[in-house]
Amino acid sequence: MTDSTHDEAHGGTLGSRLNWLRAAVLGANDGIVSTAGLVVGVAGATDDRSALLTAGLAGLLAGSMSMAAGEYVSVSTQRDSEMAALATERRELREQPEAELLELTGLLEERGLSREVAREAAEQLTERDALRAHARVELGIDPDDLTNPWHAAWASFLAFTVGALLPLLAIVLPPTSWRLLVTVISVLASLVVTGWASARLGSADARRAMLRNVAGGALAMAVTYAAGALLGAAGV
């Protein structure tokens, strides 16, 4: 039973790491697309470097703070739910231990153990740490590794910032005649990478993911550039 418990914990840790990696890739992808759309739109209206830098930095800061705040709120809600579920499970274990033992036995049976083995495993897990056993088997929660909203917020902030820096630097560093081409090429190339990474982490078709990613980024830049060009031509 020790081996199965170890495998379960290891699987949970691996799943958690994959979720973090996927969130980081998606955060970077959001930073690339949103900032690229913003600076390319401004570039459609003006070639002033300071205007492009100001718009890009404003988009980077606003986007990264928004991502961090949203992730903090979301993960805080998840953590509150996990703690409430653990509190309920703790109370049930205290008030009706035999019913909880039968419940754990049934859950282990559903995982393929025979009735006798499931009962013995449930008794051993209950003796060792009843709350942890129910949390992992019944709730899918590791009470020693609850989600941390601050970690999630900082991870989202950093991922978005790293992604947003690429189009920002690509639009302000090259000479005026090259900046739009450099930005478009670098953005599309980075979207190929993030599309491939997200597909690999999700065990999906990489080609379709990359195509969707590139198409979405290209469409965003085309629309914002057209809008910026129209506004610039109108003298707005």
From TrEMBL:
Pfam families reported for this sequence: VIT1
Superkingdom per UniProt: Bacteria
Annotated GO MF terms: manganese ion transmembrane transporter activity
Major location category of this protein: membrane
InterPro entries linked to this entry: Ccc1_fam
GO cellular component: endomembrane system
Membrane spanning stretches: 20-43, 50-69, 152-173, 180-199, 214-234
Example of a GO biological process term: intracellular manganese ion homeostasis
Membrane topology summary: Multi-pass membrane protein
Keywords: Membrane, Transmembrane, Transmembrane helix
Cellular compartment(s): Endomembrane system
PANTHER family tied to this protein: FE(2+)/MN(2+) TRANSPORTER PCL1 (PTHR31851)
Stated name of the protein: VIT family protein
Organismal lineage: Bacteria, Bacillati, Actinomycetota, Actinomycetes, Kitasatosporales
